[in-house]
Amino acid sequence: MLMQTHEARLDALRTELEKRGLHGFVVPISDEHMSEYVGSYAQRLHWLTGFGGSAGSAVVLKDKAAMFTDGRYTVQVREQVDGKLYDYEDVPATSPAKWIAANAPEGARIGYDAWLHGIGWAEEAEKLFAKKGIELVPVDGNPIDAVWADRPEPSKAAAVPHEDRLAGRSSADKRAEIADWLKQEGYDATVVTALDSVAWVLNMRGKDVDNTPVALSYVVAHADGTADLFIAPEKVTPELTQHLGNAVRINDRADFEPALAKLQGKTVAVDPRHAVAGIFHALEAGGAKVVRDDDPAVLPKAIKNEAEQQGHRDAQARDGAAVVKYLRWIEENAPSGEIDELAAAAKLREFRGLSPELKDTSFDTISAAAGHAALPHYKVDEDSNIPIPPSSIYLCDSGGQYPDGTTDITRTVWVGPGEPTAEMIDRNTRVLKGHIELDLAKFPDATSGGALDALARMHLWQAGVDYGHGTGHGVGSYLSVHEGPQRISKPGGAFPGTETPLREGMILSNEPGYYKPGEYGIRIENLVLVVDAGIDGSEGKYLGFETLTHVPLDRKLVDKSLLSEREIAWWNEYHARTRDILAPQLEGDDLAWLERECAPL
Q1: Is the same domain home to 396 and 278?
Q2: 3-class secondary structure per residue, 550-563
Q3: Could you tell me the CA-to-CA distances from 41 to 32, 152, 452 in Å, in that order?
Q4: pTM score > 0.85 for this model?
Q5: Which of 90, 217, 428, 455 could potentially form a cystine with 557 if both were Cys, beta carbons 3.0 to 4.6 Å apart?
Q6: Distance, CA of 115 to CA of 277 (rounded, Å)
């Protein structure tokens, strides 16, 4: 019998925990690869609680339960999760481990799935619990899976080769680079667990996770340049086998854990930021010497080669034409008050889909009207969906996955009739000024993203306002739209990567914003490529940014009198370049709209 209510699901989990002699259980949003986006089979937190955000966790004890989310989801968690069943707890003010230590009785046995949590979390929780006489217990099989009768199966979609001409390097070349690193460090092998790293190393893509073209699999890369791929047999085609070649041995994904136990006596590198605790446990139990070190694919994956850079430019141009068609459609149709957020997102997907190159969206479109635009990570669904009100701000953050590149763009527009308020125009102009400041930045090679973050905020700070998210994240090449290690964010913040040196070839977003709770939100986002700044006479190497995204910005939300001559010149040059790139792809009313929006300020 299927359990329809979240209360029934919670009761069933508690019954299952009691059978196993457990007094509590921790439920993260995670899969066996610690992915940002997880397949439907791994959406255990959503099934249990109803929470649909992309970051959060729950703890279930015998007599109480709690939901843990950060400031991005303060509103959403209260809308989706029953407050009679779960307390709402704010991270980082508290955490699941701290809450358990405060609420579980001495002698309690708290279960966790070691294949869904990082080793760092497990070790910290164990230490904290030991002080309170609480035991952390890795479970044998997830208890939620035992009570989730209609749990979806993992995707059976085939994995496919990613052409070398798009990747810019062969898999053999990448594996040789990793082998050189292993030998240099004195390691025998490394376990590659992040799905986008596996995809990058093998030049392989898949359809197993929404928005990210990866295949559920693991790689063990060896110091001799060979590799073992662990993947479900039904996902392997003759084309993939031929593409991988003899130096990549193909194994059943079910054999991954036993294979780790056979690496006895080997020195194996594992990245604790990307590998679950279960991998460490299996290696250590088998007698391997485990060394914690960085995933060797992360940095070379982030530094795009010439083929990937050109692919991004091509994908952005294709994507920009679709977004122009969409913005014209919004301008003409939204003032009626009859277009809602879901319909708007669907229309944008339709325009992108006119290109046969489109494989997927790169994340769920943030189609946000009025007060919803003030929620930076808003996700529209049937319950939250509202019509776009006339005389309001509408924010749309979206992206596409193309074989040659991954896109991510935010545009904020005024929906008529009438005029935006003076405050809206002021805030948007300050966001624009910060965006331009970062876009025009020149900085010494290896400067961190944290050192640049204030450039995007300075004009907002002068008005006594700020925004609560990072300014820029890395972006993959037909891979994850949020890719490390680089990041532009406040130093010392909650996000890793702020101190990572920026290198030529990295791609980042430039997305300052402003949010007035309950009323409106503003964000301007383009993607930028780190390039040589070309400063004559510079003492040492200096870097800057090449703008990759080209779509007009809404001039109705700009106060020209607040812009300097330098900023006006940026605006006019940006829009002239936008017209040059997009005009050949447009015709009729779309072309006329582009010409109008790209006229000098």
Answers
A1: no
A2: CCCCCHHHCCHHHC
A3: 11, 5, 39
A4: yes
A5: 428
A6: 6
